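>> Question from a student workshop board

For tomorrow's exercise we were told to take the sequence and the ligand below, predict the bound structure, and bring the output to class. My setup keeps failing. Could a helper post the expected result so I can at least see what it should look like? The ligand is adenosine-5'-diphosphate.
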Amino acid sequence: MTTIHVAGADIDTRHFINGTRVSSEQTFINTSPIDGTFLGEIARGGKAEVDQAVAAAKAAFPQWSALGPQGRGEILHRIADLVEANIETLANLETMDNGSLLRSHRRGVMPRVAHNLRFFADWAINELHHEVFETRGHSNNISWDPSGVAALITPWNAPLMLATWKIGPALAAGDTVVLKPAEWTPLSASYFADLCTQAGLPNGVFNVVQGFGREAGAALTAHPDIARISFTGSVPTAKVIAHAAADNLTPCSFELGGKSPAIVLADADLDLAAELTVEQYDNAGQVCLSGTRILVHEDIADAFAAKFIERASKIKQGDPRDPETDIGPQIHQVHFDRISGFVQRAKDEGANIIMGGSPNTNLGGLYFNPTLIKNPAPGSEIVTAEVFGPVLTMQTFSTDEEAIAMANGTEFGLAAVVVSGNRAHADAITKHLVAGTIWVNCFFVRDLKAPFGGSKKSGVGREGGTWSFDFYADVKNTVVSPNGWKE
Ligand code: ADP
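>> Workshop helper replied:
Here is what the output should look like for this input. Compare the format with yours to find the bug.
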């Protein structure tokens, strides 16, 4: 069976290589996290399919790169038009595949997918001017040249959204692409490939190889014809990819995990603090940016905790297709067990679990109750390791210095949230935090012009605006002398 019917859409379960569908002898099973429904058997690619896809992308590169930003942009805008025309289908499909909220996919995520493509198409057209400046009468002519075939490896927590953060700038820059979606969420990439065909994207410019990380992913990242590797996922996988890339010295961009702090200062508006910290459960905690470590000033800790619990107890957990639902299931049994293991080990160490702490037995399946652990032992696993589930910790501090030390006290540096009623106080904290993005009295506000990425083990490089093009392009300086011209 090469086509499956999911959420009203026909999805091809094969790879998408050189504009056509390609099967593999082996397949893997894809189920919905909502209720375990069998969705289909997906082609399980390996080295042979990767070689084919990279060869197709390499062959398509000269023509695509020569098209220029305007020509490429027109096609990217056509793909975005088709994404917008199919939001309902894409939203339902993604919800079935990864269990995130249907209403968020409809209103926020899928419109953002189209925006990602439009934004980077327009940035390539309008912002990447050939910059010229003089040095002792010589002109420096800076250009952003396409670099070749980009390997994009993406995670399951926001599949198409995160894929298009990479596809948009890579294609706009003139690179061609081989995408390896996460094996737990293969469907939206396949549907997106059909939209690319409908939009008239030339064959081979965009390819999808489905399969496992250690097979398809490993073959792709070790391939000598790959010019760029962009990966979003976990730290251990990034290390494996970095080793694979080393043999070819392939430049890598890594957007990795976090254990971000949410700092509530003594002068904070406590209602706002409760609202912003409870938001960290969004997407069942499966968000790399989540501020999972609440650090609260000791003077307001009890008052804050009361407001937090009042608010968090109203979270409605359930089927993500229900518009009333706030958080859905975890992605997969393996991941659910991982989360349960973290919480169990914290319990074994005597952690004070003041909310949740167990699977939701009313719902069964992959639903884990929103959990809050108070005053975990400093340095213990639950405050240092990324859980990637609906599990928050709460610790107290007495001075700003202590808050900053605690905030920076992990191997990660992806994001931070600061809640304060005093701008100078907030600034005094944020300037000492090591993080790629800091939100003050807000969360998740993001402009594609802004740099996005992590410090320390949370990443290598930044995505967004110019930063994306600095990565996907070969930035070149041509220095031209005033002398020697005959005409
Ligand atoms: P998680 O542990 O949350 O599933 P991963 O970092 O393992 O996160 O997965 C993110 C993406 O990386 C997925 O598409 C996965 O298939 C891919 N991946 C996993 N292992 C490798 C590998 N060795 N080489 C390349 N890609 C990989």
